[in-house]
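Researcher: For the record, we're logging two predictions in this thread. I'll number them. Prediction 1 follows.
Model: Prediction 1, sequence and structure:
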Amino acid sequence: MRRLGLGRMSTGEYQANLNGLNMFFGAVLGLVLTGTEKLDAWQFGVMLFCLTGNVITILFISSSRNRVSYAVFALVNALIFPYVMGFLLRAPDLAPDKIQPTLLVWTVMTIVVEFWARQEDPEAAAQQT
């Protein structure tokens, strides 16, 4: 696996992966939201509030010591997002259909990066000795 470049990630590679994922999926989510013209201001606000919660949960996967819990929570949130929006907005088809796959892929890719084996950080190793 190492010969293929699939060994342990360095700290820089880890940060580059997370930064790239977050920038890319932030942009994709913005593109996906172009399908929200049919929402009134209140409905759009509710959707933004719920999406913000999902995005924060995804970001917590790599920022919290409870990363397994946040990984599960983010997956569940992404899976139920359209149903929650249908319930909250009292209309099952108001949420753009591409939001769920965007959240799911972002969550899964973050989980892959977060749980991929990493090299020990040289600074942390020096502090332990």
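Researcher: Logged. Prediction 2.
Model: Prediction 2, sequence and structure:
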Amino acid sequence: MRPVPTLRTLLATAALVGGTVMATATPAGAATCPHRDSPKIPGAKADWTLTCRNVEGQPALYIDGWVEDTRRDALCAVVRITPERQNHPDEVRACGYGERVQIHEFYRGRSAVVRLANSR
């Protein structure tokens, strides 16, 4: 005989799943030029374009766009940018419902991992 889940168990499971969704980020694959993305997750949305140029004979990556916080909660909408030659990400944060922050970044190289996430 299979036990019937109680309401408390179902609510706890739903809270765990909901918490997991809030911490979810967009897929983390390296993007190369030219590339455009408009990800949306619960509580955040963004839009960015990657373009490449040669600057003094070296490849240069430009990332332009915006990130917006779309939920009244204690979390910020965050775009994390990890260029090909950097181990730690740079962050652009929008904190507060409706806040939109512009992204204008420059890196050496031709690719970067760019992700949208929620964070405190």
